[in-house]
Amino acid sequence: MQEVYDFLKKSGVYYLGTVDGDKPRMRPFGTVDIFDGKLYIQTGKVKDVSKQMHANPKVEICAMTGGAWIRLEGEAVLDDRPEAQEHMLEAYPGLKGRYAVGDGNTEVWYIKNATATIYANNTEPKIIKF
């Protein structure tokens, strides 16, 4: 999992895919954190992406950096503990102008049953499960 986290941090921006009814939806994200031994992302409850993950937690993340790319698939699980929210906001203090622990909008989600595949330099893909 650490290698997946490092890849996403280095990329800076990754793309999160969700399902909206029968349509795929993609959008850029930048938050990624490790807390309590799990890989986390963050969003706001008022956003469509939150509604989509609540309705169907299957997600994919894709990013590219330095000629390599990663695809991560798994299930998003909401963690409403204040400690998880605080950890994310400490990792991304710039979010504190829009989000606060326990504000009813801040959501942090961890990815479970994850399979990440890293493709690099015409080598065999590297598969990481967590």
From TrEMBL:
<dbReference type="Pfam" id="PF01243">
    <property type="entry name" value="PNPOx_N"/>
</dbReference>
<protein>
    <submittedName>
        <fullName>Pyridoxamine 5'-phosphate oxidase</fullName>
    </submittedName>
</protein>
<dbReference type="InterPro" id="IPR011576">
    <property type="entry name" value="Pyridox_Oxase_N"/>
</dbReference>
<dbReference type="InterPro" id="IPR012349">
    <property type="entry name" value="Split_barrel_FMN-bd"/>
</dbReference>
<feature type="domain" description="Pyridoxamine 5'-phosphate oxidase N-terminal">
    <location>
        <begin position="2"/>
        <end position="92"/>
    </location>
</feature>
